[in-house]
Design a protein that fits this description.
Largest sheet: 6 strands, antiparallel
Structural class: alpha+beta
Helix content: 10-25%
Strand order of the largest sheet: 1-2-4-5-6-3
Distance between the termini: 13 Å
Radius of gyration: 15 Å
Strand content: 35-45%
Length: 144
Amino acid sequence: MQPVESTSVTDLETRIREKLKRQYFMHLIGADLTRIEPGRVEAELALGQQHQQQRGFAHGGLVATMADLAAGFASITLVPEGVGVVTSDLKVSYLHPGVGQRIKAIGWVLKAGRRLHFCEAEVWCDEVLIAKASATMAVVEPVV
């Protein structure tokens, strides 16, 4: 696999936004990427009733999804066009209940290897850190 060529942030954002068109689950929950940089991504959504569990907190599955989304797309920013990543491992630690207006996930790559990328993510609800995650993303090269 060739390293990612130096591209402008605008070119990177255009490439990532093209991939987002096929990210159907993200659209279903109402999330969008709000910041895209090499090795770092932020995603947000307006927290609604459809995102809550029975006690009114952000559902744990939603929180894990946001962490996975941010870590995964942070990883994607570091692979060449045509190469993808899939989640190999995800561990989420829930710190506080998600109660508020907005969920924001921040994901970054700790180490990008040839086959595996080691990532972390934080998930915030308004100004409260509600979860920390670590993820391993497997690099998936196209079949020739």
